[in-house]
# Entry
Amino acid sequence: MEKIIINGGNRLYGEIDISGAKNAAVAILPATILAADICRIENIPQISDVTIMLKILESLGAHVKYINKNTLEIDTRFVDCFEIPDDYARHLRASYYMIGALLGRFNNARVSMPGGCNFGVRPIDQHIKGFEALGCDVRIDDGMVVAHANKMYGSSIYMDVVSVGATMNIMLASVKAKGLTVIENAAKEPHIVDLANCLNSMGADIRGAGTDVIKIHGVEELHGCNYSVVPDQIEAGTYMVAVAATGGNVLINHVIPKHLESITSKLEECGVVIEEYDEAVRVISDSRPGKCNVKTMPHPGFPTDMQPQMATLLSIASGTSIVSESVWDSRFRYVSELMKMGADFQVNGKIAVIQGVEKLRGAHLKAVDLRAGAAMIIAGLIAEGKTEVEDIVHIDRGYENIVEKLKNVGADIKRVPILEPIMSNATA
Ligand code: EPU
# Structure
């Protein structure tokens, strides 16, 4: 096991290259099952959620070959199994995409209920509603989602809540179903568009991704593809907030500035200067950030996956800010960690009132989930003195080389092994 140690206070200068998007990659990898052919996928981030997804594919019989550290060839021609055991599925939320992909290929799926970050209840009723509308029989049997159809037929599906996962899963399941599927009240995140683009590059016929009505004309076959994953909007946003919080001047490369608009506009409201280029943004910050109010919303609103990082910035802003979480029931679990550093938060249900303080103090922190872990790193970068962040497995799920990327722009940050305590005979 390892932890991250940060000596805070350094301003950040230089350039950071953004990796491929986690939440696109973890859907595109299962999508390769539908092609039953060789798919070459570029810009795959080296993160542990991807590693687990590749193990899941290999456990089904797929051949995975690394061409370089971010490019893979996946051959799913010999996949002959449609069951994902608990050992793998419980490690990541995105294992639920295997249900849609296996249904699309075999009309059958047996997948253990998914794991992932703990934000309170995380139902999958909208996924199931979609599969049933396509003609599947779905039941939960001993912790497994068991889905079967004799034949899948296109259907019109209205989502009761805007769900990223359900929208993508229904796309995967319906892409080869007979006839037309219409998803209404669909999610519009950049990773939805990326999955649709990838499936279309395999020969699918998906239109409207990125709007709230997606139309999928079922096709008989999908072929192999050569596809590059979209840049990670949340990784880029995390570094933008880090620079805004520490002060400095950093060019963040390999991004789609349009995907960052909600983050850019909030940072500008705090007084941070953001310059936009074709595929990069420059973040310039030379004074204490100002306050602002943030409400998380599905895309194009402010992303819930940026809420802990933004709240950490606001913890040192001048004035009082209000952060409202409207996507997840329980996404303020990290606040108690920030309060160890002297941050002033009052949380009431899904609303946090943040009274900005001049400084945070270094402390021993835990990453309670992925984005909370990123927020703890930002807190360590701005705090006076030394911060240690434990449980960094959560951070490794979604950030490629976060320590190296921050070190390259001047942060004093390192990973070190956690030494197990030596047990004496008396206590052994
Ligand atoms: N919901 C339902 N029923 C469902 C599905 C969702 O009620 O069947 C509710 C959820 O409880 C939540 C809301 O709908 O209140 C949105 O959930 P959504 O399905 O959109 O979330 P998800 O697909 O499980 C993905 C990302 C999360 C991100 C959310 C929201 C992946 C693998 N995960 O989760 O990312 O927070 O969308 O944008 O794509 C992260 O990357 O750190 C992360 C947690």
Observations:
- The radius of gyration is 22 Å.
- The CA atoms of residues 55 and 88 lie 8 Å apart.
- The mean pLDDT is 95.
- The longest helix spans residues 22-35.
